[in-house]
Specification:
222 residues; alpha/beta; Rossmann fold; eight-stranded mixed β-sheet; two-stranded antiparallel ribbon; 21% strand
């Protein structure tokens, strides 16, 4: 399967690219608004994989071209860029693709981080509203610490919660998630439940900041 990481030069894109590159044989394509940045990131990630004994070729393209070459398109961009990014690649998407969003809206004040949900109800629902008709959207990977993902020496042992209204697409993304060693996918219901999932991200950051010795937290349900 071919996976495109739009905004794949950022922290979340790097972590997912390295994990899929290390643990799977899926084709990983790095997308960016600047193709030179995409090429450079793909080469950097390939070098990291090589240093860990995994020889892989990753490719980099402008976002639209990356999406055009993919079966699953991950929006590894900040929440305030998701709608514009979807608009920019809409012509490259069709009903055979799955659009995945890990973004969680947050704002910070003197007390810490708080969920900041858009009028659509959640960032995931915002993506669904922006997606071309017939393109399924799945929310996943919201609560994963980018630093922990990108550290290939770190064991995961954590869960990711999936939301979506198309069961087949959710199953496809669950399979991709569980192709990563130590990551378990759990079904959290439809898109209407995305706000609850996204709100876990600021909670985890607050717990990290208020407790010494805790960093790059994830969740595991038992």
């Amino acid at each position: 399967m071919r996976i495109a990481l739009l905004g794949g030069t950022g922290d979340v894109g790097e972590g997912l690219a390295l994990r899929w590159g290390y643990h799977t044989d899926h084709d990983v394509v790095i997308g960016s608004r600047d193709p030179d940045d995409a090429h450079a990131a793909a080469d950097e990630y390939a070098a990291t994989l090589s240093a860990h004994g995994r020889e892989r070729k990753l490719t980099g393209f402008r976002n639209g071209m990356a999406a055009d070459r993919a079966d699953v398109v991950v929006l590894a961009v900040p929440p305030y860029h998701v709608a514009d990014t979807v608009d920019s690649v809409a012509d490259s998407l069709d009903g055979d693709d799955v659009l995945v969003t890990p973004a969680a809206g947050m704002q910070r004040d003197e007390d810490g981080f708080h969920a900041h949900l858009p009028s659509a109800g959640s960032v995931t629902e915002l993506v669904a509203d922006a997606a071309p008709e017939g393109v399924p959207v799945v929310g996943a990977f919201h609560n994963l610490a980018a630093g922990r993902l990108a550290d290939l020496d770190a064991e995961l042992g954590i869960d990711t919660l999936l939301v979506g209204d198309d069961p087949a697409s959710k199953d496809r993304v669950a399979g991709l998630a569980e192709d990563i060693d130590g990551l378990r996918a759990l079904d959290a219901g439809g898109l209407a439940n995305a706000a609850e999932v996204e709100s876990l991200t600021p909670l985890l950051i607050n717990v990290t900041e208020h407790n010494d010795g805790l960093s790059d937290l994830g969740v595991s349900f038992r």
